Amino acid sequence: MNSFGLWLRWSWRDLRSRWVQVVVISLIIALGVGAYSGLSSMTRWRKITADNAYEQLNMYDVRVELAEGSAVESGSMLAVVDRADTAGVVTDAEERMRVPVQVATTTADGDIVVRGEVIGVPLDNDGPAINALFTKAGRMLDESDTARLTSMLERNFAVNYDLPAEGTLTLSGGQQIEYVGHATTPEFFIVIPEGGGFFGQANFAAVFASVETAGEFAGLPGSINDLVLTLESDSDRDAFAAQLAASFATAMPDIGVVVSTTDDDAAYSLTYEDIEGDQQFFNIIAVLILAGSAAAAVNLTARMVDQTRREIGISMALGVRRRWIAMRPMLMGVQIAILGVVLGVVMGWAIAAAMRGVLESFLPMPEWLTPTQWDVFLVAAIVGLIIPLVAVSIPVWRAIRVAPVDAIRTGHLASRGGGLAPLVHRVKLPGDTFKQMPLRNIMRAPRRGLLTALGIGATIAVLVMLVASIDSFFGAIEKGGEEASGGIPDRVIVEMDSVYPSDNGPVGAVLVSPLISDGEAMLRVGGELGPADDPIDVFVEFVDWQGGLFRPDIVEGSLPGEVPGIVIAPKAASDLDVGVGDTVAVRLPRRTGPVSFALETSDLTVSGINGHPFRSVAYMSTTQASLLGLDGLANVVSVVPADGVATGDLQAELLEVGAVTSVQRADSMAQLIEDLMAQFVGIFQLFEAVVLVLAVLIAFNAASIAVDERQREHATMFAYGVRRRTVVAMLMLESAVVGVVATLIGLLGGLALFRYFITQWAQTMPEIAIPVEMSPATLLWAIGVGVVAVGLAPLLTAPRKLRKMDLPSTLRVME
Amino acid sequence: MIGNNRLIHLEAVSRRYELGGTTVTALETVNLDVHDGEFVVVLGPSGSGKTTLINLIGALDSPTEGSIRVAGFDITDAKRSELFDFRRRAVSFIFQSFNIFPGLTARENVQFGIDAAGRDDPPNADEVLDRVGLGDRAEHFPHELSGGEQQRVAIARSLATGNPILLADEPTGELDFTTGVQILELLREQAGPGTAVLAVTHNREISRVADRVVELSSGRIASDGPPVGGRAELADLHW
Q1: What predicted TM-score, i.e. pTM, was given to this entire model?
Q2: Most buried in the list A250, A289, A504, B217, measured by CB within 10 Å?
Q3: What is the CATH number of the domain that holds B104?
Q4: Host domain of residue B91
Q5: What is the ipTM of this complex?
Q6: Chain A partners of B51 at a C-beta cutoff of 8 Å?
Q7: Positive/negative CA dihedral, A313, A318, A323, A329
């Protein structure tokens, strides 16, 4: 009897006799293996591609930015580096000029005007050498473009609006500049909007030109305000940055500088942290899917072992060793696992191929490296093999421990206990026995019901996690938009390139525009909150609390009073562990000259907490502008367009005002991110469809097993004249009850996972407080999948099987 | 007391099956009438066609030839939905392996019979259980009952439908002698005005307690009449 071939053939016949259930479980395993291998391959590609890109384009090690609005003569920042004690570790350094501008161009859908920046870089010696430009379309800038009105357009922005490789841009003041290609560079692999987040490309255009050209645009020829350096590979970046900051403080005491390292670069850190975060996300999705497949495999194997109970007993009576008895169902498990893994590898390859296109579209790395990740596929294959085998071994192990006499016993003597049914039999259930029997059946076989619910619950948890993440992210963005509008739905923010008198000059020109019905000049400055070694970037708006147009929402505390104070965002208060009445260090630029600002630290009282989900949003009173030497000055105009005037009309008119760098609705970022995220809706819908299919497959499997297992009961019902549709309805009701339990498990599990990811995202995107919220639509989705889809699953199998049932034979079947 | 109401009428009924290219005749030109009050035992060895006969009368199967009329229903060429309706209102089955629902208590199994029939004046499940001597076992699940008790629950479920014809397929097949006799007694009691009981068995001893024995052999009725030697009392049985 110990011929392996015999057992293999026998198990193969077992498998063929249940081919539909086997294929279903294999498909579920395949989805788990495919999801893990395909998505994990993507993670690997992102990592090696990012490493390659940062090396190829020579990402800076240290960057020195002058305070907003400041500029110095070309060469003076390099001179500070040369004089520093640590200059020996510097391998290269380049000065740049970054000038905030408005950028207007024409797209297929019409004219657009967005916030932008002219980034002046050295074009001599095939420059720039640090944070080099990579040509994605058109041609590269060269030395001949120095001081000319020639530029390259940042690739993400260009692709977002489907702009051609060459064209003309109109910048603030109506100045025009040609662009000759699309370029990418490490700082814009991901476009970070002001205040944090990602996908800012719809609202931000970086224009790369020569450093000389940028100076001309700023009206400060020969000036620079930015410096990037690369260091010896073994040098300590942080230590160097600290010493360099000290050198600048000494050399330029009237100008504030911010010295940062690679790790501080938002796009850089987001690129890598996002990769790690996504991998965790994918791992959980794959594990949950595989858990669902394990539950399905246990159900099927338990059913199969039940059916062969007498054969097992006879084998035992004949003296067959237990390991040989176990081999038959185990071999079936192996065959299911192999089929699942083979299908999974194919699926993983397909997922990876599909995601490759998505990556290349959304992350403009110079070169995408996408080698086949054999080790990832190997791990997925091994896990995909082990999980069903472990699942199968549980009922097999239980079966071979039964005494032979018990296994051989037939008829009513073989009947087993009623599961948990006795626990609930005193519970008065509504309806007739047809309505009560589904719940009784679940309680009779609680393990299978629970395993099915766990399997489906796992898939619903994935769905809830995905959709709740989207809900919450959009919730935060929408909330941000509402807060930025300040109760004025059409509020438009006009930004200036520097500070100007608040009642004349360019600010005055905006205020008297016939296109606005109301407006107020405001100050908005970038700064830092908290300890100097780990600060939080903020944008402080100086608000006229008395008669101003814009009134931010204060959720706790009050507006700053006589004593200087600041209103900060809840996330900032949480991260800094401060509350109303506490003191916080605030580092803001203080004007020291027409184009020079020094950063000064003051200890201010937290007078209130605003309602903005972005931690960078802070408010002070206009009466405190004198602290910065900016009283009577403004760099932002908050306006309400006149009736019938669109934002685009205002943008077009104010493009002529040279000092204006941005004209955007206050809630524009929220709208643009929503628009951009809408491009991902297809991917999310694909995920949702996969989850739906998974849940239905598991429910189908459970229903199919239930129909097989209860065929005598169903035959008896038919013998009593119960109609087939009633039996199918009972199966659907039973499935729906399991679906309700699964939905509860899925909702709780999904929310727990979501909470976990919120903590992870807090590290990846610390700038945004993402609320834990789930929309009614998400809840309906979960209920729809868990209850409705699962409840309907028996329709896929029960009517056919019941119709094909041989009633007389089924009724006479002996145990 | 055998009445005049003909509950079962089979006329020239044949049933043939195609098995692997071979035609197997399970029943051949069978004529049978059963009246109310009769307790009829269909006797025969394995393969004689007795189960086929009970399946045809219960509309679980359809004849190849002939006509069948049961409790006023002509089920010979009835549609599937009509057959469901017939089974709900005319016949009740009792099986060798009981086929009661393991997830339901004794009372709930009986209630199932009531619900399935859907009569306007349904009996009380507890009263029906009392009739089969299981009034004190109503809350028990099948796995908590003995084989005889399970078969009593099955009989109670059949009685609860209120249908005029009880069809019992080897009702004592899984029971010991004493229990089997008790079940036979119970079945015999059910034959009365307006109702008939038709039991199938291969056990000649059981047939001794019937009003009438229909003996099948190779699909044909070999004999039809009172038990040889007259109807016996239950106390006289032994096997």
Answers
A1: 0.73
A2: A289
A3: 3.40.50.300
A4: 35-59+84-236
A5: 0.84
A6: 808, 812
A7: negative
